[in-house]
Amino acid sequence: MGSRTALVTGATGLLGRQVVQAFEKREWNVKGTGFSRADNVSVFKVDLGDAAEVQKVIDDTNPQVVVHCAAQRFPEKVDKDPEASKALNVEATRSLAKLCADRSILLIYISTDYVFSGKEGEAPYDTDAQTGPTNLYGQTKLDGELALLDEYKKAGKEALGVVLRVPVLYGQADTPAESATNVLLDTLWKSQEGAKVKMDHWSIRYPTNTEDVGRVAHGREQDPPRRAALTTNVQPADIAVKYLDTEDTSALPRILQFSSEDKMTKYEIVQTFADIMGLSMDNVEPNTEGNDPNASVQRPYDCHLSTKALQDLGIEHVLAIKSQQKNSVFLNTENFIHFLSTDDTTAARKLHKSVQEWRSWYLVNKKVDLAKKEKALQTNHDRLHVEKPTDIVKSGHHRLKVSVDETPYTIGKFEPLLDMNRFDKPLEEFGKDFLPERPAEKQRPPVQRTTARPTTATRQAIATSNDAPATVEGGALPNLSQKSLFLALYAKVMSGEKRKNEDSEMVMGPQDLGTVVNKQLLPVGRFLSRWFEQRTTEDGDLIGSQGWLEYLYGMVLAKEKNEDKAMEYFIRSVHLFPMNWGCWLEMTSLITRLEDLNRVSRHLPQNIISFIFHLHTSLELYQQGPSLANSLDQLLGIFPTSAFLLTCNALLA
């Protein structure tokens, strides 16, 4: 099957941008229409109210599917200009539907949960539930649905006209005002400046990420034969491919619904933003009175959409947890959020809300400038200077393009992670793993991995220390799992890195650079050194470690230029948790010669990840050759669609 073409209306809008990206990721040829932000290259300037313009762009692009995202979607604007809103939401939809139906083009019409009355006790609504909009916006979208279904019925192509209802959306926005969810940040910021605001705490909403909607709307082709043989589950088709590739379409539903399952009022959304960014809610008052009878726009109480029809088609309902990893604070270590969120199916669902909150933070990152705001959770920075070790100090590193200390999304801009209470898991879930602080630091030789069991004294020391809080200079930490402890300490390191970067702005010249240091490295390093010391048996075995803290300690040592010891801890970490690609990248950043790579490789676990690491590091060292090309071919045979491996292949070409 050749490349398919998709046409997206409203391609420059909040949802349209993500729909375009979703199709492009599956190698569709994607074109779009827009108006004020059209570039006339991939997005054509088209007046959807002009049938001739619409017909021309359809005939020029010859799409197999059209996703109709363009609409007037703000209820207040619909009320202010009802005629223009009806022209776009209803008449333009009818005209587009007729053109697509006459050409046997699949049309996916994005509608809204506001087609329902939302009366208390009625939700969740199935696709065939009685409609009854409470405002003009909902009525125009319902009329648009009926217009589409009518045109396809008249053309005898009912199966190619599909309605997809979604609730209130949020996503990566050019400005917060572009999203009815993101815009609530403006209210939160006003409250920080002293303004008293009331926020609706009555109407229930289900904020849904635009990237998830795009994923559901686009198509997933079947896996290539080689890859399919290696997978236990074949990925389900999403709407476009499902409707295009099904031979007997008579049983396919004409109306589908997609929604998050996290219910929140506007007040709770603002509270979530405040929690994520460490801002006060003192000036935000919940309003539980319901609709103001004098308001121009009446909103429903609860329009929760049932997604049963999607599930019956075999289309995934669980939202894309992994899709936002690239937007997390671990820009080059995506496995952390994946691991924390999807340890198992139950944990994935329980942590779904937390993942949505990570997304929300990223969406507003460009607007937030916490450097100009009072940091509610600012810790007291340790004033001790770091004494750089006199061990091996190398220069002229072959650095990766993106390293942990170079990522623009540092935890220094995400202060709430310094308070890990929101992300903690119960201590008993992961085992008892905390020890009291000891004042004296003792240097130990490198720890060798053995199979020896801890001594009786060591077991007793661990057993009697579980109730004591872990401490690090600058404040005590609550009882945390190893994963949460890693995040808390990582936050401290990154906050120190941010302060270091701010201080470096005052550097007058090279001689002053020595005074600009990350003041968190020393206390965090001391804490981790004690942590490992107290968990090491007399025989040199390390008790109960999971690899997280080895990775962090290696990072601290690397920043202090103690690179040999850093490499030792990175190697320990990948033995314990090889799926942490960030640790492998840190190892790559310390390797400057082929001899170093060969020496390190002898101590690595033998698995597919170490194989990929060897390939990646060889490319970083410019070691192109037949052997490397053969290794890459083997990996491509297993992962033929991997963007990373395809990039490596291009570099070798």
From TrEMBL:
Domain Cdc23: 418-650
Ranges of compositional bias, category Basic and acidic residues: 432-444
Region of interest: Disordered: 432-475
Gene3D superfamilies (alphabetical): NAD(P)-binding Rossmann-like Domain, Tetratricopeptide repeat domain
CDD domains noted in UniProt: dTDP_HR_like_SDR_e
GO annotations of cellular component type: anaphase-promoting complex; methionine adenosyltransferase complex
Coiled-coil region list: none
Residue ranges of every copy of the RmlD-like substrate binding domain listed in the record: 6-216
GO biological process, one term: S-adenosylmethionine biosynthetic process
Biased composition (Low complexity): 445-464
Classification via Pfam families: ANAPC8, RmlD_sub_bind
Molecular function terms, GO-annotated: methionine adenosyltransferase regulator activity
Protein name per Swiss-Prot or TrEMBL: Uncharacterized protein
Organism field: Verticillium longisporum
